[in-house]
Amino acid sequence: MDSNTSPQDYLKESKKKLLYSIGLVAILFVFKLFGGLFANSLALLSDSLHLITDFFALIISWIGLKWTSKPANTKYTYGHYRHSILTALINNILLICISIFILYKSYLRFLNPVEVESALMIVFSLLGILVNALILLNL
Q1: Maximum alpha-carbon separation in the chain
Q2: How far, in Å, are 17, 26, 119 from residue 56 at the CA level?
Q3: Is 35 within 8 Å of 44 (Cβ atoms)?
Q4: Is 7 helix (H, G, I), strand (E, B) or coil?
Q5: pLDDT of 138
Q6: Cα–Cα–Cα angle for 129, 134, 139, rounded to 5 degrees
Q7: Interatomic CA distance for residues 124 and 8, integer angstroms
Q8: What is the distance of C-alpha 133 from the center of its chain?
Q9: Cβ-Cβ contacts under 8 Å for 29 (sequence gap 6 or more)
Q10: CA distance 74 to 16
């Protein structure tokens, strides 16, 4: 934030960037989910599940920005900054649940291997790299 930018302008710009990132992550999730299903790729499926946690983390961050912009009141005398602890807890619980699911699916794949469409998997992985680069350049 440069010296000529007000905190309100900074929050407004941050919210716009988060919404842009949320949209890109949602689109990438759909592509990787279908790519993982069509290619029989557990790697793409697990990455799509990881994108769900990113999606919710970005939404929670967006909500958090709205909360932190609220002024202090009699109930929250220091403001609403501590809501970020709750959002981090929710995100970590989601990650643990998804990790358990991936571990279970990996075990099943170990017992009954399936053929993976590697060309399709590579295409969707490259798409993921492109979208992540767009998000990085946006931030």
Answers
A1: 61
A2: 15, 10, 30
A3: yes
A4: helix
A5: 78
A6: 125
A7: 38
A8: 14
A9: 48, 51, 52, 55
A10: 30
